[in-house]
Specification:
By secondary structure, the protein is α/β, with parallel strands linked by helices. The protein is built from eleven helices and ten strands.
Length: 347
Amino acid sequence: MSGPRILAIESSCDETGVAVVVGGRRIETNQVATQVALHAETGGIVPEVAARQQLRWIVPTLDAALADADARWEDLDAVAVTYGPGLIGSLLVGVNVAKALAVAHDLPLVGVNHIEGHIYANWLTDVAAGDPMPSEPEFPLLCLVVSGGHTQLVLMEDHGRYTLLGQTVDDAAGEAFDKVGRLLGLPYPGGPAISAAAAGATPATRFPRARTAGPYDFSFSGLKTAVLREVEGYRARGEAIPVDGIAAAFEEAVVDALVTKTVAAAQDHGVASVALGGGVAANRALRSTLDERLRADGLSLRVPPPAWCTDNGAMIGAAAGFRFAAGDRADAALEAIPNLALAWIDR
């Protein structure tokens, strides 16, 4: 396929991702240096440590991406980078490297919102050059972005045209998975560990579903507290904690909340399709339950492969491809913005 060939950098948290993406869709390379093993020692991400690791890995990951794509700087059309939201120290590494590369090689710079990247992961493909491209998601598109730092329902009317319908009012779903995983003595990250423990297990109880003021908002703080009280009850009675059963009950509650509100939003807004994005989108229970509920309403579910759900440069390259085509450009004044909100493209 034709289209801009973009080098994209993602460094918003604890993954260092560099990719080359053509036309906002086809991945030529997608290199990721992960810090999971390092942060497992502390049971969670330490921002200062994450930023130092970004500094350590950004150049080797960049070199690996260029080599894997057999790309020369004169073959590229732009440099793209995540400039928020995320951890300020980690963001600064990617933003400053991307600005330096753009200036050094006289290339346009495109700033990308991290949430937008997770949405655009649904446009990615790794088909070979010249092969037929898979279909694109249809608009209007409802996007559920679920990760360690974000839980949002976004209505996408066209490329770069967003309406935030709802979001978490406290903990993100992925954050709740990590915290509950620690309560149950499971390894970090909590999401995969809880899913593995819950697989085939019978829920040990039924945890409450939070009520929120907004019809499409989420809340997981109370659920986390309910798990804590359940665990403390077993300890107070001197009983063995049914880790698998509690994990199953917790996962059931999270999935139920996410699916119920997503389906309601899809029905209320008459969308053409629904897409998942973010690290928690790799959760098998969420994917299967949401797909089943949507199919009952005649809707299809788009879900990227698990490797494209977690933070990576390819998703930033996908979003950047469409922003580049719309004429969106950044300059040397681009700054890292930890609490960056999704913004429309002005046309």
